[in-house]
């Protein structure tokens, strides 16, 4: 049967966590579901392939979670990282729905394991996927396919037929041909636009040319553009995104989780002028790691350097690439092509102002700080004095963008006049800006995808006749 001959009742655009949750929910409601994934099979799943965990509210400890994570604490964490830039009603709805997600996602074949160690400190709040994101994704695909969900790869949506807020059909390019696929309901779950560097430059300017994209080159936001052009409400700032500091030696695309660096709290971060530019100890790492991509983006050549010494080498999960190492600070600066005198002077000045003496623990703010610097380090301050010395060069690593379409509590896409579409839904990164106006907390992207994916699939199933 050719693609044009398919007659789905629910058409799902995308192939990651949000799309699969939607497809499974709709199929379990008895609908014929077709998933069209723009990527080839090997690269299916977008950023889900590179994730490790998800953040859900829960009332008590489990076999893999060390304690409760109440809804109100989750909401407070979200408010803190977004500085209140969130749709509070929608965020609270998502958090409530997340409480049942841990059981539901396991019913779809996903398994969890105890939290990873190091600076993550997430054993109570976040559930880690056994085998990582790719294993989680494969479990969802196995369940979807066993239920009868059809999946077509290398299938890019190139046009949408929308009239008065109602989806009629999508034009899909596959095997060199274009196919019109009509369906009673449509779910957009095909990610952000981070792989479209030209679009990133519209918000960030030419410096976006130095950004690295942590996921695949297939998240270009084509469906997002089409929906907005068709009169769907836009939400989000084009410069807001999930951006972390990743190893500058990572590839342009698809470096994933193994190029992320979690060692900022153990040292200091310098720019090319050998100056510190932010407090490395502001809060525990899971609540601050996603600000560092934006901070580095504001530096010369969008480059910075995490510097630490020998005692800290084994305290975090390293990058795929080894750190740059030297026996002296001046030698290390030379290997980084930095001014040795300025490099050594900054570190010497930092060391002089460290006020320590408290027990060191990365699991919570420990009060070991500096006093008298223009930019203080408020926790985890340690002198960088024990050879050998190490550094990682870093650049902004863009995970996903926040500009997308506005939705309601049923994951229905809102039209320009604020009324919900009669049969279009969105889930995942394409609507993340509803919850994430700015900032990020570890694992919340998977929460957004899973919760709104399930809601979108359930809602689409009601229209899939």
From TrEMBL:
Q: Does the keyword Flavoprotein apply?
A: yes
| GO molecular function list | oxidoreductase activity
FAD-dependent oxidoreductase 2 FAD-binding domain ranges (all copies):
10-437
Question: Is Transport included in the keywords of this UniProt record?
Answer: no
Q: Which UniProt keywords apply?
A: FAD, Flavoprotein, Oxidoreductase
- Organism of this sequence: Salipiger marinus
Family matches, as Pfam families: FAD_binding_2
Query: Which cofactors does this gene product need?
Result: FAD
Query: What protein name does the entry list?
Result: Tricarballylate dehydrogenase
């Amino acid at each position: 049967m050719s693609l044009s001959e398919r007659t789905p009742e629910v058409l799902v655009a995308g192939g990651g966590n949000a799309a699969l949750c939607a497809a499974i929910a709709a199929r379990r409601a008895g609908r014929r579901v077709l998933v069209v994934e723009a990527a080839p099979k090997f690269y299916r799943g977008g950023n889900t392939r590179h994730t490790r965990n998800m953040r859900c509210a829960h009332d008590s400890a489990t076999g893999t979670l060390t304690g409760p994570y109440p809804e109100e604490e989750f909401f407070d964490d979200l408010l803190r990282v977004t500085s209140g830039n969130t749709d509070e009603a929608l965020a609270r709805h998502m958090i409530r729905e997340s409480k049942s997600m841990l059981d539901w996602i396991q019913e779809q074949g996903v398994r969890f394991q105890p939290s990873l160690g190091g600076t993550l400190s997430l054993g109570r709040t976040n559930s880690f996927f056994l085998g990582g994101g790719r294993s989680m994704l494969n479990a969802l695909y196995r369940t979807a396919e066993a239920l009868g969900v059809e999946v077509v790869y290398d299938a890019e949506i190139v046009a949408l037929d929308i009239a008065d807020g109602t989806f009629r059909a999508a034009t899909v390019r596959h095997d060199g041909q274009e196919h019109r696929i009509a369906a009673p309901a449509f779910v957009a779950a095909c990610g952000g636009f981070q792989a479209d560097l030209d679009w990133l430059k519209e918000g960030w300017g030419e410096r976006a040319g130095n950004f690295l994209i942590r996921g695949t080159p297939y998240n270009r936001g084509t469906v997002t553009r089409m929906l907005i052009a068709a009169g769907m409400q836009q939400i989000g700032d084009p410069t807001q995104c999930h951006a972390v500091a990743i190893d500058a030696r990572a590839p342009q695309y698809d470096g994933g989780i193994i190029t992320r660096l979690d060692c900022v709290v153990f040292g200091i971060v310098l720019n090319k002028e050998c100056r510190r530019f932010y407090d490395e100890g502001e809060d525990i790492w899971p609540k601050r790691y996603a600000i560092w991509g934006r901070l580095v983006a504001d530096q010369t050549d969008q480059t910075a350097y995490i510097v630490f010494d020998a005692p800290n080498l084994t305290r975090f999960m390293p990058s795929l690439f080894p750190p740059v190492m030297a026996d002296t600070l001046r030698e290390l600066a030379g290997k980084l092509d930095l001014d040795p005198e300025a490099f050594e002077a900054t570190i010497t000045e930092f060391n002089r102002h460290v006020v320590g003496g408290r027990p060191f623990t990365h699991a919570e703010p420990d009060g070991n700080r500096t006093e008298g610097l223009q930019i203080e380090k408020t926790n985890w301050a340690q002198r960088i004095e024990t050879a050998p010395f190490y550094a990682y060069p870093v650049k902004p690593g863009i995970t996903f963008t926040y500009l997308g379409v506005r939705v309601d509590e049923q994951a229905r896409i809102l039209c320009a006049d604020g009324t919900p579409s009669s049969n279009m839904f969105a889930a995942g990164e394409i609507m993340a800006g509803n919850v994430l106006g700015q900032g990020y907390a570890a694992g919340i992207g998977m929460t957004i995808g899973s919760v709104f994916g399930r809601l979108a699939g359930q809602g689409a199933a009601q229209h899939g006749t």
